[in-house]
Write a structure and sequence with these properties.
67% helix, mainly alpha, 5 domains, 763 residues, 44 helices
């Protein structure tokens, strides 16, 4: 019967579609028999009988599942006829209505299984080449890893065995590569440079060295990217040794890498960690030698350098850490011991060393969560120092630390400082609360505002308080006497600045007719005082950036942000020479916007400015990475406030939906969203789900905007390589790649969705 149907259609010269219509309308009860007989006929047909092959190919195309399951894999006549058909029309045989379905995946595997029964190496290669051009077949093969993994593993095993036995050489073009990729075990990890390039890695660490341990982004990448980050930072350290880099390498990256190596990231401890030499050696041995060779770094020498024992004493412990990185976790215990000593020379030396390396030392304090405990020790010690020279040095050391931490605007660290200085009524706490403008002046102190009380103060710190109150209530009536006091007791200059900041009085500038002590902190304090008490039109805040200065002049914040972004994206000389300073000032501005709940305004301002900046870097990817760094900066400024980060993402997507944007702007928005999603642990899932749902609107047809489709494509193309994000993306998201014709991304998506591991290092 089935042979008769085939013969009659052939004799009538019916077209393939007409043949299928006849079978479907009149002979569905004999469908399996018709398929089997047609396959056998194809196996013995002459080459010129093309129509017979087209009949079978059309049945596969229209009814792939039913046709492929009708073939008896143990019947070589049937499978051979199919293989010959595939070798001629393989690109047409698979066109499923639903790609991400179990039936479609099993059908794709069945077609591949039929093909793999071929024993002729040349014919096998030709058939694989043709079916690989069936566009959706490689995708469905890859999708079967997720939707029907047991079936996939069976076919994968057959494919691998056949490759080894017959040396199949079917990788000739990208379509064939896709089929091989869809079934092979090669992990589709991206190049680490998708996330970080050599050009921006130094900028990345310059910006984040103060907030490095908070950067959730580092927890999300696989070992390949993490290893790249480590080596590039190491190369930066070799070129320009800095204590912050030692800490990031040994106490941040090594613990994260070690946890990833052992699949322990779910239980990773967020608290600061000491340098563990054993973990360090294990991690270094796990990073491929090629990573080190790329930067001409010897792995063996690097391990020896970072593990060598302390063997000298040059008199500056902070500088010695650069020569002996293994000391990194001993910095605070070392200086704590010196400060608590009864040896005044040790106390003074410790103070001097800290002042000389104040930024690095402050970095260690807040990276290890030791601001409160260490400052408490310093303040308590200060109360009991009578020696003028030692008191002055220790006092200026404390002022330097507090000012450095306070001026950045970080709300968490400022709260710590505020808690310390308001926790006691001790004179030192009182003075610092006035210096930082945390508390107001007690009116009753006017009764004690006399020159005699200044001279007769029972302690140095009380003399500071008396001097402040005299300036506050009496002013500079006895200027020469005040000059004498400042010459005799240099530490009283802090009271001058405290008075100036409290009153914003121009009279305070008259005291600066005499020179203040030569300490770095005084230059900054003097700049801040000038800008606060003078006509602000005379000064650009950019040159005197400080959180308190900026927050007092919110009308100038927009201009400040514009200046900094033009410095950064305009590749200005100021940025090239002082990138840390430019980024630090930008962070202060972000803190100001956040403190005033103006995040939405800030992000729109950033995009308005950046969209007008010419691409002076000559590399679009670098520009995208830079905007990602800007986004991460904003995210960290929020200090774990996930609501603020969510508002920013909402604002961005509203901006994208409601404004005309080109591909360049869309890509920058993608990078900004990625930075905002990945930099903060709090609210991570909420943010990623919100953006994924936004992307899904393209698939569901509720949003047919081309720019939204472009956004969804580029967003997914990056985040699928980040496992914690990928785990939150539904399988249906692959349609975003399908809509954009990116077969490789679709295949990689399914391969990675099926991969539960994230611990491979590969080049």
């Amino acid at each position: 019967m089935s042979s008769t149907v085939i013969r009659d259609c052939w004799n009538q010269g019916l077209k393939p579609e007409e043949f299928v219509e006849v079978v479907v309308k009149n002979h569905m009860d004999s469908f399996e028999s018709i398929v089997q007989n047609l396959a056998i006929i194809c196996g013995v047909s002459q080459e010129e009988m093309v129509l017979i092959y087209e009949y079978l190919a059309c049945l596969f195309q229209k009814y792939s599942n039913k046709t492929s399951t009708a073939i008896d894999l143990n019947n070589r006549d049937q499978t051979f006829g199919c293989i010959l058909t595939f070798s001629k029309f393989g690109e047409k045989i698979f066109n499923p209505d639903i790609i991400d379905s179990i039936d479609s995946c099993k059908t794709a595997l069945r077609i591949l299984e039929i093909t793999l029964t071929c024993h002729d190496n040349n014919l096998l290669g030709l058939s694989l080449t043709k079916i690989s051009q069936s566009h959706y077949l490689p995708v469905c093969v890859a999708a079967s890893r997720v939707l029907c993994p047991e079936c996939f593993q069976i076919i994968q095993s057959k494919f691998e065995n056949l490759k080894s036995n017959f040396d199949i050489k079917c990788i000739k073009n990208h379509l064939e590569v896709n089929l091989v990729s869809s079934i092979s075990n090669d992990a589709p990890h991206p190049s680490p440079k998708m996330f970080f390039s050599d050009h921006v890695i130094s900028v990345f660490f310059i910006l984040f060295h103060t907030m490095f341990s908070k950067l959730y982004l580092l927890r999300l990448h696989n070992l390949s990217v993490m290893g790249f980050i480590y080596i590039t930072l190491l190369d930066s350290f070799v070129s320009s040794p800095q204590l912050t880099k030692v800490y990031c390498l040994t106490c941040v990256l090594v613990p994260v890498l070690h946890a990833k190596m052992h699949n322990e990231m779910d239980n990773y401890n967020d608290s600061p960690q000491d340098f563990d030499i054993d973990k360090f050696i294990e991690v270094m041995n796990n990073i491929p030698d090629d990573y080190f060779k790329k930067y001409n770094i010897s792995k063996k020498e690097h391990i020896e350098e970072f593990c060598k024992p302390y063997s000298t004493n040059t008199g500056n412990y902070l500088k010695e850490v650069l020569q002996f990185p293994s000391l990194i976790s001993q910095i605070l215990p070392h200086y704590k011991e010196m400060i608590l000593s009864d040896n005044l020379d040790l106390i003074k030396r410790a103070s001097t060393e800290i002042i000389a390396n104040n930024s690095d030392f402050c970095f260690i304090l807040y990276s290890t969560n030791k601001i409160e405990s260490f400052l408490t020790i310093l303040l308590n010690k200060l109360e009991h120092i009578t020696d003028l020279s030692v008191f002055t040095e220790l006092f200026f050391c404390i002022v330097s630390i507090i000012s450095e931490i306070w001026r950045s605007g970080d709300s968490t660290n400022r709260k710590i400082i505020e808690t310390i200085v308001t926790s006691s009524s001790n004179p030192s706490h009182t003075l610092f609360s006035l210096f930082l403008h945390i508390s107001s002046v007690d009116p009753e102190m006017m009764n004690y505002a006399t020159i005699q009380n200044i001279y007769n103060a029972p302690s140095h710190i009380e003399r500071c308080c008396s001097f402040f109150h005299y300036l506050y209530f009496i002013g500079i009536q006895n200027l020469e006497t005040l000059f004498d006091l400042l010459q005799q007791y240099p530490y009283l200059w802090i009271s001058v600045f405290a008075w100036g900041f409290q009153t914003n009085s121009k009279d305070s500038l008259k005291i600066f007719k005499i020179k203040f002590p030569n300490y770095p902190i005084f230059s900054n304090l003097f700049s801040q005082l000038i800008i606060r008490v003078s006509d602000d039109k005379k000064f650009a805040l950019t040159d005197y950036a400080d959180f308190d200065t900026l927050i007092q002049q919110p009308q100038k914040l927009n201009l400040e942000i514009e200046n900094y972004l033009n410095y950064i994206f305009g590749k200005s000389q100021a940025f090239l020479q002082y990138p840390a300073s430019v980024f630090g000032n930008f962070i202060m501005c972000c803190h100001c916007f956040s403190a005033m709940n103006r995040e939405k305004e800030l992000v729109l301002l950033i995009f308005d400015i950046v969209s007008k900046v010419p691409d002076v870097y000559g590399n679009e990817e670098i520009l995208e990475m830079m905007i990602g760094i800007i986004s991460s900066t904003m995210s960290l400024v929020f200090n774990g406030n996930s609501e603020k980060a969510f508002i920013v993402i909402q604002s961005l997507l509203e901006f994208l939906s409601n404004n005309e944007t080109g591909i360049r702007e869309v890509k920058l928005i993608v990078s900004f969203c990625n930075g905002m999603i990945t930099s903060m642990k709090e609210g991570f899932e909420e943010r990623i789900r919100y953006v994924v749902d936004f992307c899904q609107s393209v698939i569901e047809g509720t949003n047919k905007s081309q720019k939204i489709s472009i956004f969804a494509y580029y967003f997914m193309k990056v985040v699928i390589y980040i496992k914690p994000i990928r785990d939150l993306i539904p399988i249906s998201a692959f349609h975003i790649f399908n809509l954009n014709g990116d077969l490789k991304a679709s295949i990689d998506f399914f391969k990675m969705k099926a991969d539960s591991h994230d611990n491979l290092i590969c080049l």
